[in-house]
Amino acid sequence: MDVGPVEYMVVAFPGNRFRGEIAPELKRLVASGTIRILDLTFIKKDADGVVSHVELDALDPTEASVFDNIEGGDGGGLFSQEDLDLIAEELVPDSSAAIILWEDTWAAGITGAIRRAGGELLVHERIPAEAVERAYEDAA
What we know:
Blueprint: E1 6-14, H1 22-31, E2 36-45, E3 51-55, H2 61-64, H3 81-90, E4 95-103, H4 108-116, H5 129-139
Antiparallel strand pairs: 1-4, 2-3, 2-4
């Protein structure tokens, strides 16, 4: 079975103000076959700096409802405690973060083709959208 590259992102929400606008886009990407969610974990840091880690299936039903019908997010457990602790260190008090791990299923075919052709991927990096936007602005 061909597997696409796996990526993750950490999205912080200062003031613990997660409103759920991300969930519909994740749902669209999963439904279209662009990505497959491998893990979705939340970290909360209260005003005193006390940290808690919560998997999607352990969220309060009201909080979790924005992620209804997103397949794959309940796999959980792929992030180590060390991973979560490192991310939590970066959070300011009274904030939270969503950590999303996904497979780029759209790239599985080319990954397999490279392997079958005897090729070896040497570099694959993501360029942040902000850097691309600045480059376009500078070029204009």
